[in-house]
Structures
1.
Amino acid sequence: MATQQLVAEINAWDVAQRQFDLAAERLQLPAGLRKVLREPKRALIVHFPVKMDDGEVEVFTGYRVQHNLSRGPAKGGIRYHQNVDLDEVKALAMWMTWKCAVVGVPFGGGKGGVVVDPSKLSLRELEGLTRRFATELSILIGPERDIPAPDVNTNAQTMAWIMDTYSMNVGYTVPAVVTGKPIPLGGSEGRTEATAQGVVYTIQDAARHLGMDLRKCRVAVQGFGNVGGISARLMAKEGATVIAVSDVRGAIYRPEGLDIEAVSAHSRATGSVVGFPGSRDISNAELLELDTDILIPAAMENQITAANAGRIQARLIAEGANGPTTPEADEILYANGKFLIPDILCNAGGVTVSYFEWVQNLDRDLWSIGHVNDKLHEIMTRAFASTLEASLREQVNMRTAAYLLAVQRVADATSVRGLYP
């Protein structure tokens, strides 16, 4: 209970700014430039009505934040969650800026969210909420301005509704206004798996660096959604033994290994991984501290903190989620010899393939899955190598190294553009 309370008190925006401050100090950025990069360019807060199935009107609160646009239009997902707030969205937008920069994608950082528990809405209510929110965002979004994508509790159907709403308002079809769309509407092959695929590509690179044989590694995955579930399946395909997975209801553990396809079927049938036959139910907190070789936190922010970092046993930690580790925990993990692949590198496969989708839409082109994955592999491997080189050269952990690269690239773009007017 004490650990849960501590996690709840951690402010994601404070964490994001402290991570930036560490990099800015080491890079010796000028004070004025630090002030510019430390805050979002703009933040939109909207309160919008939606007519529910029973005829009543409910008012929902939504956000869209653009952190920095020096390197290109804003890019970032939209999440539907009851705990969304402005500070969380600001942090996620800043992380998107660094994520795009570290892999060399020409976007700035953006993020959006609506305060809602989508499980309590019907499909019609969800569509109504999405279309109204898209209309409220129309003053910001556009294929050359701000391109949303799926995030927590949103998916390809959500993006289809946003694209259609935007297109109806302008009078013609605009596929490039969002990414993560269904294939028939201009979505990219490989987009659904992209984030998890990027996670696995970076794990492969890290394992080679550390001399780890993935076929002999045990893996624990926190989160069994699009990122965690697919990461677990891909790691099993690599020959690793996945010993634990979890979702919002809890975790399951089987030291001999889990059949991920069977776990997926059980989750679809029951709504949770909990209770999977032959496994032992444990908590999400217990999963993080299991005796395992590789840990993939792919759930929400602030899961690994100063309170539990010292008990993390995994040698390799791959951040499938955004912001799962606090700065204090980073120091503990690094001091304990843990190798952590930071979120802005590890889970950048999603925004990278979103960039591919955007390019395909603008060119009215369609790439094969092989072409998409080859280019994704090339970009992720190059970004990992650059980050590892910086880590070894500067004698810092991988997160600091990734931030040094990303912040410098954004700072250079911001500086050379100058101040207007």
2.
Amino acid sequence: MSAVIEAHPERSQAVPEFKSSKTPLPSISSQAFVSETDRMALENLKKVPLLPMVLRKFHELAWDRISYARNSAESVRCGPKQFRSLHNMLREACSVLHVTEPELYVRESEVLNAYTSGTNRTFIVLHSALVQHFTDDEILFIIGHEVGHIKCGHVLYQEMGRMLMPLLEMVGQATLGLGQLAGAGLVAAFFEWMRQAEFSCDRAGTLVCQDTRVALSGVMKLGCGSSRFDDEKDLDTFLEQARTHSETVGVHGLSKALLFVMYNWQLTHPQVVYRAKGLDDWINSGAYERIIGGDYIRDVAGASQLGEQTKCPQCKKTVSTLVRFCPECGHDFKPQMGPNGERVAPQIVACGSCGEQLPFGTKFCVSCGTATA
């Protein structure tokens, strides 16, 4: 922890109150940025016959509670009074992606890494080496990446993937070894999905930091780290390396195929050149600019992400507790109260595009998606 404090001694003085400086993306759906390879890999994973058994063992062994208890005992939690700048970055990321705020921790480690865990009490962990060597904007990209995992609903399967080997060993014993044989396909499917999920979340991190070169710089730094030669790094040269490597064919292509069979299939993250190439391609496609400009798929109920949810007492639709009005029937979850405690009926406004009757304060029409203000 001392390395973090020494790197930014001025932070112990006065940190300004949180005030979002990024363009928010109200009600954005994860489908707006999830990669097709992520979606397909997850579908393939869910088709593996052994998955239901592993999922049941995961819950029986209480891995979720164990991982939370271990992390909260070994890491330092960020908040308004501790690591306030990091906590404000988390609030920024959650504000942009419209996600319920998880817990955030810093953990002592020399490895440049961060991860998200916990399905009941979701938390993000930043390694101290990453906090020390990344700029504030690059850390915001990393936190946005992790919040992206929450937005996409990756956390349960990610945590299962990290615990997969001991789980499969127990399943194998329970099935006289048959589970171990079938488990090889499940392990491969898990690793493939975990790699593909990273591409989606690099996009989420970019949407949060809202600087494409910062995002790509963060990816590059995950590959080369930080050193006294940082001023000699060149992002454009690295991107050219990523493009050239990704397009290699012939003998080199065969070498890459053999390398994958021997080693890469066990990786939980794509190699850094592929992450850079994937993110660069997505940016150059115009998708990033369209989303920042407000052209994206919306999930007005917010029911697909992790975080607190509730059922509308009027129509029974499941929605996120972040939602003020039910998108199905317009019920006001946070009604105005009169001076004597009586409930004040919400004002009704008409959508300027389709004429739908909406409760006052609704930002986007539940019928056509048009912004109301």
